[in-house]
Each structure stands twice: as structure tokens, then as C-alpha cells.
Design the sequence.
């Protein structure tokens, strides 16, 4: 697998934490909501929507390449929201500019890291507790909480 991504694709995001939980957003109507981890455990229901019902799971993210076609920089959206950094969390917001995310394939883990940009030290998505935070990783190896999988590879 080359790790080469399409210019635009839609896919759920899965963390490589134990149980491989999905990444999604809670069913609240606030303008800014954290990205959360949704367990895949049998019998565990996804979060409830405001007004009743359940969030469809897995939730779908839209990845769109931005800038130079040779780069691996994408905007990542969920529903009508863009993802970006607020404080030390990754959030989905209704208004405001989208964050450009560098997406780097880690062949040895058959997974991706999602980082603020393509420079070192990497500031990467990190699954912690029940949400996605942003953390600095100065090394070239990435632990499982910083690895994610999604479809969208050009050779799938």
C-alpha cells in the first residue's frame, strides 16, 4: 500500500487505540464541539442527538486536498463543520476558517498521522481519554494514540 490519497474522499476515521473506536462528534448543537471517540464495543450505543435519536455511526468525514496538488494537506469536515485546533483540542466548528491538516502515511503501522503541518516537531492528533487532543511529538515514531485509519487511498 502506497499511502497515496485521493484529492477528495469521504470516510470514517478510526483510532488505533484498543478496540479501534471511531472518531466523531457529540450530538449537541453548540457551534464548537470536540472530536470524541465512539467505542465499537458490542452493545455500546453512539451518543444521542439533541431532540432524540442516535448519531449515525460511524460518522463520515470529508477530506479535501488544499494547496499544491503534490502535498498531503487536507481540510477535514464532518457534516457542516470544519475541524481545527482550539486550545489543546481538535474541534468541529460551524463558523470560521478550516485548519489545513498534513496527513502522513506510516507504512510500518499501515496507518496515518494527522498533524497541524508537515514540519517537525509534529503537532499531531492524539486520542486521549474520550476525545482527540493536539500534542507535540518531537520524535519520528508515533504511539498508537497518534495513529488513525480511514479509506481514501488511491490504490484501494
Sequence:
Amino acid at each position: 500500500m502506497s499511502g497515496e490519497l485521493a484529492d477528495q474522499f469521504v470516510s470514517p476515521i478510526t483510532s488505533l487505540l484498543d478496540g479501534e473506536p471511531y472518531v466523531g462528534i457529540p450530538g449537541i448543537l453548540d457551534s464548537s464541539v470536540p472530536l470524541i471517540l465512539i467505542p465499537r464495543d458490542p452493545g455500546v450505543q453512539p451518543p444521542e442527538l439533541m431532540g432524540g435519536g442516535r448519531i449515525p455511526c460511524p460518522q463520515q468525514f470529508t477530506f479535501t486536498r488544499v494547496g499544491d496538488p503534490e502535498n498531503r494537506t487536507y481540510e477535514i469536515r464532518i457534516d457542516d463543520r470544519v475541524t481545527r485546533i482550539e486550545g489543546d483540542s481538535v474541534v468541529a466548528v460551524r463558523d470560521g476558517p478550516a485548519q489545513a491538516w498534513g496527513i502522513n502515511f506510516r507504512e510500518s503501522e499501515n496507518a496515518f498521522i494527522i498533524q497541524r503541518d508537515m514540519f517537525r516537531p509534529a503537532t499531531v492528533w492524539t486520542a486521549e481519554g474520550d476525545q482527540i487532543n493536539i500534542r507535540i511529538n518531537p520524535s519520528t515514531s508515533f504511539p498508537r494514540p497518534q495513529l488513525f485509519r480511514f479509506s481514501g487511498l488511491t490504490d484501494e
Remarks:
- The chain has a mean pLDDT of 84.
- The chain is about 0% helix and 40% strand.
- The two ends are 8 Å apart (CA to CA).
- Residues 19 and 40 are 7 Å apart (CA to CA).
